[in-house]
């Protein structure tokens, strides 16, 4: 996918399959029906050896991906990688939970009109890379996906940056005849790593939250005492305008962040929607 990766936060333990249905794959090779899929390449694990989280996370890697990642990480400063991810997540949590709506809007305007374009683009790229690196380690095949506060906070920060990116396209500054347009291309914000996740499971969670999404939308409308200028998607408007940004519920869903989701993932979710209709 060409996106950033980082080591799993917990140790990985080698697991060997002893009791599993053996079959011959399409290439004529012996394979094992492990009932598991690799969280990196998103394909069924058919070897008798795979690697799983030793702390109980529902995250697995096939032998091939584990070896490739080990080679990739060899000789790199893993402490620095972990520090970057932790710093971005901490900054995101502070912005979303400690700042009120007016402060978040002020921050977005500062990023939109005061920051140099090159610096803003580098900031967007860094946050996208951190989110892409984290998405591989999400437990996307269970409801535990909502429990990763650091990841969803990083997504919330990315939505704030997306809203800031759109602000110059919505208004003319003094001395300008036409709006400037977005600071960086909108496709810069797409998280390619989401394409590795389980679209069927995501659609099921999204469909199951139908009523809760309606209640959250009503609460958000009641919280907004004054109409605000539209800055983009519903998620980015929540990040800017909500008195309190809730990182649970519908917010902790890929499909709530339509501007960040790859087209191919949307297509897979749509196919599941048509199948269930």
What does this structure look like?
There is one protein chain. Helices cover 48% and strands 8% of the residues. With 277 residues, the chain is mainly alpha-helical. A 3-stranded antiparallel sheet has the order 1-4-5. It has a two-stranded antiparallel sheet with strand order 2-3. Helix 5 packs across helix 8. The radius of gyration is 21 Å and the shape is globular. The two termini are 31 Å apart. About 3% of the residues have low confidence.
Question: Which characteristics define this entry?
Answer:
277 residues; mainly alpha; globular
Mean pLDDT: 83
Query: Would you list the SSEs in sequence order as H and E?
Result: EEEEEHHHHHHHHH
- Spans where pLDDT lies below 50 across 5 or more residues: 225-232
Helix fraction bin: 40-55%
Q: Roughly what fraction of the amino acids lie in strands?
A: 5-15%
- Biggest sheet: strands, sense, closure? 3 strands, antiparallel
Amino- and carboxy-terminal Cα gap: 31 Å
> Which term fits the overall shape?
globular
Order of adjacent strands in the largest pleated sheet: 1-4-5
User: How many E-type strands?
Assistant: 5
What integer value in Å does the Rg equal? Answer: 21 Å
Structural class: mainly alpha
Total of DSSP H or I helical runs spanning 4+ residues: 9
């Amino acid at each position: 996918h060409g996106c950033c990766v980082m080591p799993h936060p917990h140790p990985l333990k080698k697991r060997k399959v002893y009791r599993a249905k053996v079959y011959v794959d399409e290439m004529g090779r012996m394979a094992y029906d492990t009932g598991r899929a690799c969280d990196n390449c998103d394909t069924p694990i058919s070897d008798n050896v795979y690697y799983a989280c030793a702390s109980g996370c529902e995250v697995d890697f096939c032998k091939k991906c584990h070896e490739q990642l080990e080679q990739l990480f060899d000789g790199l400063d893993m402490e620095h990688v972990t520090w970057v991810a932790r710093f971005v997540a901490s900054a995101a949590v502070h912005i979303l939970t400690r700042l009120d709506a007016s402060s978040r809007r002020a921050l977005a305007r500062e990023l939109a009109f005061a920051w140099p374009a090159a610096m803003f683009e580098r900031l967007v790229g860094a946050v996208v890379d951190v989110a892409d690196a984290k998405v591989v380690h999400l437990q996307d095949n269970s409801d535990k996906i909502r429990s990763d506060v650091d990841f969803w906070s990083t997504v919330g920060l990315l939505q704030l940056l997306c809203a800031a990116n759109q602000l110059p396209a919505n208004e003319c500054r003094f001395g300008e005849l036409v709006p400037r347009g977005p600071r960086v291309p909108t496709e810069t914000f797409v998280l390619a790593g989401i394409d590795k996740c389980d679209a069927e499971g995501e659609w099921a969670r999204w469909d199951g939250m139908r009523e809760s999404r309606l209640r959250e939308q009503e609460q958000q409308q009641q919280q907004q005492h004054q109409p605000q200028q539209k800055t983009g998607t519903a998620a980015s408007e929540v990040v800017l305008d909500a008195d309190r940004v809730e990182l649970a519920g519908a917010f902790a869903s890929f499909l709530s962040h339509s501007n960040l989701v790859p087209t191919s993932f949307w297509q897979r979710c749509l196919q599941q929607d048509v199948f269930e209709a």
